[in-house]
Design brief:
Layout (H helix, E strand, L loop, with lengths): L8 H4 L10 H15 L12 H20 L1 H11 L14 H19 L3 H28 L3 H29 L1
Helix pairs in contact: 2-3, 3-4, 4-7, 5-6, 5-7, 6-7
């Protein structure tokens, strides 16, 4: 196998190490790599390492693709490459307005769920998407333009919360559909 699996995920796909990503290029590079490392292509190799190596290569390529495909996991990966742990608060005090925002979102979702108000849940989902889009735009500036990893880590935590909240909205909508 001629793929260097020790490369970081961006280099593996031949992409610049940036948050702003050409998703079509990522998809094309993934297809090319996946074809090259796919275990079926190496089925003729002996079981004592060749096929296992091919399987590990396919797993690494898929893991890299999954991490780079979504903005929140791509941002997390960029922060990890910069030596930061975006999941941890890193000793920073969480801003009170952020905590208040979380409470307000959760209360709104819970009220709509309890009222069986599909329209309210769908409106919350739309508002949430607008909020997420704004944070993603900020992340692009923070990571690519300013290289402000501390502020970006906070934005990643906010995105993670919004993703979890979106899951709650989706679950509430599914429960109301049943």
């Amino acid at each position: 196998m001629s793929v260097d699996l020790s490369l970081d995920y961006f280099a593996l796909f031949g992409l610049p190490r940036r948050f702003r990503l050409d998703e079509a290029m990522l998809d094309r590079a993934w297809h090319v790599l996946q074809t090259e490392v796919h275990p079926d292509r190496h089925a003729h190799l002996p079981d004592n390492g060749g096929r296992r190596s091919a399987m590990q290569g396919a797993l690494r390529v898929n893991e890299a693709y999954t991490r780079l495909k979504k903005p929140v996991t791509r941002a997390q990966y960029l922060l990890e490459l910069a030596g930061m742990c975006p999941d941890a608060v890193n000793g920073n005090v969480v801003a009170s307005e952020y905590l208040l925002e979380q409470l307000e979102w959760r209360e709104a979702v819970e009220e709509a769920r309890e009222a069986h108000d599909v329209d309210a849940l769908e409106q919350l989902a739309l508002r949430l998407q607008v909020r997420k889009d704004g944070i993603v735009a900020q992340l692009a500036e923070q990571l690519d333009d300013r290289r402000d990893f501390e502020t970006a880590a906070d934005a990643v935590r906010r995105l993670m919360f919004l993703d979890k909240l979106r899951l709650g909205i989706d679950n509430a909508l599914s429960a109301l559909d049943d």
